[in-house]
């Protein structure tokens, strides 16, 4: 039995190891794709030319496209996908709801309301280039805090948290609609465009802010993955084994909410990544949270980078909002998973 367990655990580790080169390949293809095609070899030469002095490089135009336009965009997609995939997996475990994700809980709609206030009325906690980002982050945090407080604080149950999140979802959507109703057409258009997600405004300065948040957040979630694993058996069973259920649930939700708030404030609302990635991983390796969280993060990054590549390539030179592409990819995939769970009708 021990040998079978170790073999089963080894297959999960092999899956994660196999996902990493796929992620790297998709990232290279994404950097090479766009209105101006750049060969993968030129991408590597451009990277080497800037990272390794004296190694050559390519034309200045190619270097500009790679380093200033596409590489920050792909890096932002990587950070956002890791955060959304990992936090979505944790939320589904904590809330014991396979349809839970960062957007069903109203966090994204609250961020959208904050962004609409900034874009339409110029109201914000920060000024300059961080006006929209600061507002979106603040209201996402407010929504997260309201979920914890209104659902019962330390005694919050998964059911009460889900219901509170749904109530906040519709509440902030209604507020956003009212704000947009009184805005002029250009400002409303900008708010709507922000709400469907976009990686086009990524730059190295923003990545420098987001990178430590995502890294620390994922490490903290993985730190509690063993306790989350035990909580799959139920709160009473987990408490009998010494797991601090209340602390673990609250801590995991707070960290996941911070991750989502940070990502949404820079990219806008990108749906389905945090919902679909954990389901795909469960089909492949099961529900062991120690492997589910990192694997979901990696698969989320793959989904988001691939979606952004399609968004830039399908109707080039027109760039589609990446949130719309993830929805197009996520809806049929989610329907497939639902039908499969209902008895293998597909």
UniProtKB/TrEMBL annotation:
This is Abc transporter btuc-like. It comes from the Bacteria. Keywords: Cell membrane, Membrane, Transmembrane, Transmembrane helix, Transport. It is found in: Cell membrane. Pfam families: FecCD. The chain crosses the membrane at residues 12-39, 74-95, 102-124, 130-150, 162-183, 203-223, 253-277, 289-306, 318-339. GO terms for cellular component: plasma membrane. Coiled coil: none annotated. It is a multi-pass membrane protein. Belongs to the binding-protein-dependent transport system permease family. FecCD subfamily. CDD domains: TM_ABC_iron-siderophores_like. GO terms for molecular function: transmembrane transporter activity. GO terms for biological process: siderophore-iron import into cell.
């Amino acid at each position: 039995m021990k040998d079978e367990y170790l073999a089963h655990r080894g297959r999960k580790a092999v899956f994660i190891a196999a996902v990493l080169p796929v992620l790297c390949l998709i990232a290279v293809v994404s950097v090479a794709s766009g209105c101006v095609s750049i060969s993968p070899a030129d991408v590597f030469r451009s990277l080497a030319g800037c990272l390794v002095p004296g190694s050559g490089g390519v034309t200045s135009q190619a270097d500009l496209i790679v380093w200033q336009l596409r590489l920050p965009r792909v890096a932002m997609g990587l950070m956002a996908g890791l955060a959304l995939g990992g936090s979505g997996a944790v939320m589904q475990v904590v809330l014991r709801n396979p349809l839970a994700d960062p957007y069903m809980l109203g966090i994204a709609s609250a961020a959208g309301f904050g962004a609409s206030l900034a874009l339409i009325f110029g109201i914000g906690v920060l000024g300059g280039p961080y006006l929209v980002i600061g507002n979106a982050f603040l209201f996402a945090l407010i929504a997260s805090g309201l979920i914890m407080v209104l659902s019962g604080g330390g005694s919050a149950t998964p059911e009460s948290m889900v219901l509170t999140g749904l109530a906040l979802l519709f509440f902030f959507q209604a507020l956003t609609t009212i704000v947009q109703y009184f805005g002029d057409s250009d400002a409303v258009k900008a708010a709507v465009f922000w709400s469907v997600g976009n990686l086009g405004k990524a730059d190295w300065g923003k990545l420098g802010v987001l990178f430590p948040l995502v890294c620390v957040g994922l490490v903290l979630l993985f730190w509690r993955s063993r306790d989350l694993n035990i909580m799959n058996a139920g709160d009473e069973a987990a408490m009998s084994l010494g797991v601090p259920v209340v602390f673990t649930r609250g801590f995991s939700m707070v960290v996941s909410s911070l991750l989502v708030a940070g990502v949404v404030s820079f990219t806008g609302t990108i749906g389905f990544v945090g919902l679909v990635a954990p389901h795909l991983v469960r089909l492949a390796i099961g529900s062991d949270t120690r492997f589910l969280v990192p694997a979901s993060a990696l698969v989320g990054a793959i989904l988001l980078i691939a979606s952004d590549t399609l968004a830039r390539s399908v109707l080039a030179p027109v760039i589609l909002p990446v949130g719309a592409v993830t929805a197009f990819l996520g809806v049929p995939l989610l329907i497939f998973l639902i039908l499969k769970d209902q008895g293998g009708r597909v």
